[in-house]
Specification:
single chain, alpha+beta, 3-stranded antiparallel beta sheet, 2 helices, elongated
Length: 84
């Protein structure tokens, strides 16, 4: 989990965003630090706090997808057992 620590280097924020984005969208984003807490993300300029919120949102989405996949696997198993 990434905390909103003011001493956190920009490269860690960029790397965490890349990982979270890649998990959800299956491709690498274009993200770079521009200075003074501003980032260029896929051609859009965003502030650090906005990027941190987006990282948390993407991680929550990934977690929900994993839970849904697990539930569907359990539902398939229950269906198989019922058909026996």
């Amino acid at each position: 989990m990434i905390a909103d620590d003011p001493t956190l280097p920009p490269r860690y924020i960029c790397e965490n965003y890349r990982r979270a984005y890649n998990v959800i969208n299956g491709r690498e984003p274009a993200v770079r630090y521009m200075g003074n807490h501003w980032y260029n993300v896929n051609g859009e300029i965003v502030y650090r706090s906005t990027l941190m919120e987006e990282i948390m949102r993407l991680r929550n989405m990934a977690q929900r997808q994993t839970i849904m996949q697990d539930k569907s696997m359990i539902q398939r198993l229950i269906s198989r057992l019922r058909s026996l």
